[in-house]
Amino acid sequence: MFRFASFVLLALLPLCGCSTSNSMDYDKVDLVKVSGNVMLDGAPLPKAVIVFEDPETGSVAFARTDSAGNYTLQFDSEVDGVTRGAKVVRISTTMKILGLRGESDDEAGDGEVDGESGETEDGQSTAGIEQVPDCYHSNSALKLEVSSDSTTFNFRLKSDCSVTAPE
Fold first, then answer.
1. What is the mean pLDDT of the chain?
2. Mean pLDDT: which of 24-28, 45-49, 96-100 is highest?
């Protein structure tokens, strides 16, 4: 009998913990809905990825700006929001994020603007070229505090990196 019970237990073991649904209990996560706008040198920054990173835990919330530079942060691929607290903000036109709503493999980080060719002044394509200065993405100086009272963050970035906080 012991052998049979052991066999059944071992046979069922691979099924333990398997689930076809997301087991995240969003009610236990204290999320704040955050949105805003991103401009670079006075012009909207379309199709840019914006990331709010918690410097303590490394957790992130993310969004892609629309053609007017507007964004709404996602906690993950299903729920909007970001946890409260200090954040480092990173903004990039070439960054790719798995689970970002509205992003497909062929458009992720392509740098094109709503079907336009995306060219520089000298006629070169901007596809795949980072349009945002390094001081706003890999070496970001953008820091802020998310709270229930602070839910809108507009970024008026400058190519000379003189902006280090949202409006």
1. 80
2. 45-49
Q: Decide: 76 and 68 in contact? Cβ < 8 Å.
A: no
Q: What tokens appear for 130 in the block?
A: 């980072």
The pLDDT value recorded for residue 77 is 87
Helix residue ranges, H only, 13-149 = none
SS3 of residue 3 by DSSP: helix
- All structural domains of the chain, each given as residue ranges with its CATH number in brackets, are 28-113+122-157 (2.60.40.10)
Q: Give the sign of the dihedral formed by CA 64, CA 140, CA 166, CA 159.
A: negative
Please give the Cα distance from 104 to 97 (Å, whole number).
10
pTM reported for the whole predicted model: 0.74
Instruction: Give CA–CA dist 55/144, Å, rounded.
Output: 11
Largest interatomic CA distance in the chain: 81
Question: How does strand 152-157 pair with strand 35-40?
Answer: parallel
Burial of 49 (C-beta count, 10 Å sphere; 0-12/13-18/19+): buried
Q: Are 63 and 45 in contact (CB under 8 A)?
A: no
pLDDT, tens only, 70-96: 999 999 988 999 999 999 999 999 998
Which single residue is written with the structure tokens 């036109």?
93
**Can you say how many angstroms the Cα of residue 88 is from the centroid of all Cα atoms in its chain?**
12
